[in-house]
From TrEMBL:
PANTHER family: CALCIUM DODECIN. It comes from the Bacteria. Pfam families: Dodecin. This is Dodecin domain-containing protein. It comes from Hyphococcus luteus. InterPro entries: Dodecin, Dodecin-like, Dodecin-like_sf.
Length: 67
């Protein structure tokens, strides 16, 4: 039986929420082994003088622990 762990990460992008998600998953895969899935907990935007400066996502990433 596999044992998994969930960690929360925050990722940002100047382009879009989709780009922030992809950047976050790419970064998680560089640090964590056996990434199996993720779900988006929250989305937000950072504004600068009324214009969107950054798209941010908070995601929960699930990875399976080694035996």
């Amino acid at each position: 039986m596999a044992v998994a762990r969930v960690t929360e990460i925050i990722a940002g992008s100047k382009k879009s929420f989709q780009d922030a998600i992809e950047d976050g998953i790419d970064r998680a895969n560089k640090t964590l082994k056996n990434v199996e899935g993720a779900w988006i907990k929250d989305q937000s935007i950072i504004l600068d003088k009324g214009k969107i400066k950054e798209y941010r996502v908070v995601m929960k990433v699930t990875f399976v622990l080694d035996d």
